[in-house]
Amino acid sequence: MKAVVWHDTGRISLDEVPDPKIQEPEDAVIRITASAICGTDLHMVRGTMPGMRPGTILGHEAVGVVEETGPQVRNFNAGDRVLVCSTIGCGRCVYCRDGYYAQCDVVNPGGTAFFGGPEATGPFDGLQAEYARIPYAHTGLVAVPPGVSDEQALTVSDIFPTAWFGARLAEVGPGDVVVVLGAGPVGQLAVLSARMQGAGRVIIVDGNADRLETARLQNAETVDFNAEDPVAAVKELTGGVGADRVIDAVGVDAEPPSRDREKAGHDLWEPGEAPDQALRWAVEMVAKAGTIGIVGVYPEGFGSFPLGTAMNRNLTVKMGNCNHRRYAPGLLSKVAAGSADPTTILTQQETMPGVLEAYEAFDRREPGWTKVAIELG
Q1: What is the reported pTM?
Q2: Partner residues linked to 178 by β-bridges
Q3: Which of 64, 248, 277, 319 has the fewest CB atoms in 10 Å of its CB?
Q4: C-alpha distance from residue 1 to each of 8, 61, 128, 141 (Å)
Q5: 31: how many CB neighbours lie within 10 A of its CB?
Q6: Which residues of 259-271 are buried (b: 16+ CB within 10 A; e: fewer)?
Q7: Rounded to the nearest 5°, which phi and psi values hold at 47?
Q8: Which regions in the chain score pLDDT beneath 50?
Q9: 181 bridge partner residues
Q10: Which pLDDT score, from 0 to 100, does residue 193 have?
């Protein structure tokens, strides 16, 4: 089968690799009909998330059809249409049973396990492929309801639950003024999630005009950090008070430090040279006693946080990897009922042969490349 394979920092390729097989009784093999490129994948490609093992298949978002199941997978049959939750949980340990699937003590006692990630997360081959082995399939697969398209279901594999989780971490409630940092796919869906959870007003901060326009179409107020100081802008928009809640959907910038300052940027900050910039903005633009929810990617070893400022302002800060299996069924039901359409952020669809070019365009943040779905079936 064909798959997107990581070989080294900055070097991936579309390779012919062996088809996956059932290895454990709780495995399933699925034929993938749609996958996607996520901003997290760029961290692996660029090396800002270290520890990748050469030969690992990338990707952690997919929708597909069950081909084969192990003897302990009793809730799915061949031919069933399913989505894959991007984080992996066994479903039976104390963490999974409490809903903390991203901290499964069986799959990865040291933290989160997810498809296509560094060695410390498993590693598990990813989902940018024609077929995939799904461990603990009885937990990690979710049936796709009739009438829900592959594109709709694909967003519930990762980015919609992550955005929803970010709003929950930030404790968004009725009437809140919410700032979303980052207008990438998760940030766009954080706007939708905040609205669905009762926010009265949503402001989104980014430096990409195309992505800001997409956010404006769903009635978010926009702040371009290339044109103005985002902290000052939020304070002005809120009468000097700041936002009630902030959702950090950025994390560490996926770009390495710039070696060409004339080409690289703007005068507010240098991409790749300010890994804690989103955190600092969050702490400065939230109101006193406000809440920050962090779902942006911060790899192990990151050690910079404005703790003193946050403590002095009585802030509540919550963070973590999304427990996808906890939220995916409910969000799929909302999509099936027509109360949410997350596909508005799917701006590009590519076939598998064009996936490397799609990576390059997505990496450059070219206009119209907010979220890329890969069609395989």
Answers
A1: 0.88
A2: 202, 245
A3: 319
A4: 21, 18, 11, 21
A5: 15
A6: eeeeeebeeebbb
A7: 90, 5
A8: 254, 256-272
A9: 205, 248
A10: 97
Residue 211, domain CATH:
3.40.50.720
Cα separation of 101 and 9, whole Å? 29
| Owning domain of residue 353 | 2-158+323-375
DSSP string, 203-237: EEEES-HHHHHHHHTTT-EEEETTTS-HHHHHHHH
For the record, the structure tokens of 67 come out as 């081909």
Supply the pLDDT for residue 367: 67
Cis amide linkage into residue 18, ω under 30° from 0: no
* DSSP state for residue 129 in the 8-state scheme: B
Is residue 138 located within the same domain as residue 205? no
On whether both 106 and 164 belong to a single domain, the answer is no
Q: Are 304 and 167 in the same domain?
A: yes
Q: What is the pLDDT of residue 365?
A: 66
Q: Is residue 269 located within the same domain as residue 143?
A: no
Mark whether 116 and 87 lie in a shared domain. Answer: yes
Q: Are residues 96 and 128 in the same domain?
A: yes
Residue type, 51: G
pLDDT value of residue 304: 77
